[in-house]
């Protein structure tokens, strides 16, 4: 199992929302085909076939737990896969 696949399993399990590294979440969203804009500490991800816009910010080196939950809900809603 590759790095991204393990990260998706961790995110989908919902048990490790507080321990997902921010940079790993950024790389995962890019690998899923999201485009990124950065404005200050806000990383804004969007994709043409996804209605939601994901706005994430780091909490130290970690991603914020509620934002990991938003990513999880988006992955499940759109049945997303890693493109890279």
Describe this structure in words.
The strands form 2 sheets. The chain has a 3-stranded antiparallel β-sheet. A two-stranded antiparallel ribbon has the order 4-5. β1 and β2 form a beta hairpin. The relative contact order is 0.22. The chain is globular and about 30 Å long. The protein is built from 3 helices and 5 strands. The chain is α+β, with helices and mostly antiparallel strands and 84 residues long. The two termini are 14 Å apart.
Rg over CA atoms, rounded to whole Å, is 12 Å
Spans where pLDDT lies below 50 across 5 or more residues: none
Biggest sheet descriptor? 3 strands, antiparallel
Order of helices and strands: HHEEEEEH
Strand content: 15-25%
Mean pLDDT: 95
CA-based shape: globular
SS-based class: alpha+beta
Distance between the termini: 14 Å
- Main β-sheet, spatial strand arrangement: 1-2-3
Quaternary status: single chain
Total DSSP helices: 3
Q: Could you tell me the number of beta strands? A: 5
Helix content: 40-55%
Q: What descriptive keywords fit this protein?
A:
84 residues; alpha+beta; two-stranded antiparallel ribbon; 3 helices; 5 strands
Précis, in short:
With 84 residues, the chain is α+β, with helices and mostly antiparallel strands. The chain has helices at residues 3-13, 22-31, 65-78; strands at residues 35-39, 42-46, 54-56, 58-59, 62-63.
